[in-house]
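Input (structure):
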């Protein structure tokens, strides 16, 4: 069975002291969460300090982005090896904010996915439709296109080492959570895409997270859906109580 993963995407929040304090609290209380793996993704400048605060705890460290090249003249960018060097195990790729604000494309996300896998990082590849696309009945097509583009040429051996996150853009930071049925429908579609491209056995191994206004109060209903294998949490991951509360809502394996 797929073990639930609760990932905190801190986005561009915290300062050094509060990032370390939050990581220390999550690490100290991680035993409250028995049915899920925990991961925190701080701003890149705090990765090293947060990693130190997490040392010895079961909480994993992840980044929010990276560049696809190994090194060179790419001012301001961070390489996959730099992330593994400071102890990051995962990296969020293609978050809708990067797609919408920085214009990141499926092709770029695809390139980053390969670079992350090659470096031994677990990519968390994000997909999700915008409100107009959902209202126009295009959700399934948009998700399929992002899946095909972002995960083009990924082999069955590789896909089991990555995580997919479904984050409907209209539910991010808006307090408007997708209903468990709406989320499960897309997650089941993603599982079907994986099954069609690979096979059922491979598809069953891939964790698919839901993201978009996940809170302790709505987490158990979402996480009890058969194809929802965890959560990618934004706002609520900035409070240890809320983040751990979401983790405690995880179903048993
Ligand atoms: P919120 O939980 O704040 O809606 O953010 C979700 C998200 O974008 C996580 O990556």
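Output (sequence):
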């Amino acid at each position: 069975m797929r073990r639930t993963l609760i990932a905190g995407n801190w986005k561009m929040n915290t300062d050094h002291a509060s990032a370390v304090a939050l990581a220390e609290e999550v690490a100290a209380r991680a035993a409250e969460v028995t049915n899920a793996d925990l991961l925190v993704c701080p701003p890149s400048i705090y990765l090293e300090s947060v990693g130190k605060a997490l040392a010895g705890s079961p909480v994993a460290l992840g980044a929010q982005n990276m560049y696809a090249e190994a090194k060179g003249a790419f001012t301001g960018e961070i390489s996959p090896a730099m992330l593994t060097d400071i102890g990051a195990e995962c990296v969020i790729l293609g978050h809708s904010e990067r797609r919408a604000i920085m214009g990141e494309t499926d092709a770029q996300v695809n390139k980053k996915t390969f670079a992350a896998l090659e470096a031994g990082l677990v990519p968390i590849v994000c997909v999700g439709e915008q409100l107009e696309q959902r209202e126009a009945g295009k959700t399934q097509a948009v998700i399929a296109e992002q899946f095909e583009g972002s995960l083009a040429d990924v082999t069955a051996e590789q896909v089991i080492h990555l995580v997919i996150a479904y984050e409907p853009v209209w539910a991010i930071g808006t307090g408007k959570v997708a209903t468990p049925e709406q989320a499960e429908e897309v997650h089941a579609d993603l599982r079907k895409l994986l099954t069609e491209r690979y096979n059922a056995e491979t598809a069953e191994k891939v964790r698919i997270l839901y993201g978009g206004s996940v809170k302790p109060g709505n987490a158990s209903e979402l996480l009890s859906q058969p194809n929802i294998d965890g959560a990618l949490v934004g706002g609520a991951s900035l409070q240890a109580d809320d983040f751990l509360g979401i983790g405690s809502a995880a179903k048993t394996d």
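Notes: The first strand starts at residue 4 and ends at 9. The chain has a mean pLDDT of 97.
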